[in-house]
Amino acid sequence: MNAEFGEYLDQIRELQPQAYSISRGVGLTNEEAEDAIQDQNLQFARSGISFKNYSKFSTWYYQCIINRSERIIGSRKNHLPLTDEGGIEKSYDLKENDQSKSIREKLARINPLFAEVIRLVEFEEISYSEAATRLGIPEVTARTRSYRGRNELKALLQREGIFR
Known about the structure:
Layout: H1 3-26, H2 30-47, H3 57-75, E1 79-83, E2 89-93, H4 98-107, H5 112-123, H6 128-135, H7 139-159
Antiparallel strand pairs: 1-2
Helix pairs in contact: 1-2, 1-3, 2-3, 5-7, 6-7
């Protein structure tokens, strides 16, 4: 373990619950949020902490967690994750097939503000940042709309018996 990491270990432990909440708020699943925090902490332990005192340590740490979380989200391609009642994630492949056509049709039935973000991010495979730029909204708004749209889409699919 890097000696510098040891100096910050107590602070990191205190910040982890909030870091977890931040990762979940960005759009990660429970497991992904835990992985993001663990991966970031492992990187700190191996490579050292490059904190330069330009801001509070907590602010810097949370930004590192946000960046790691966004990389995880960015690595998701060609699937629309939805979680069933038991918390089990189901993925729908969004390559051109009957299933993706059906999901595209369902997108037309949810709030158009939400559907547009999902269409850009999932079907056109662009980042939330780029989608936000195209739509002229902040990135956090794009992420929120995507989250809400996924929930609307999930509810619609459940009502139609397609998703439990």
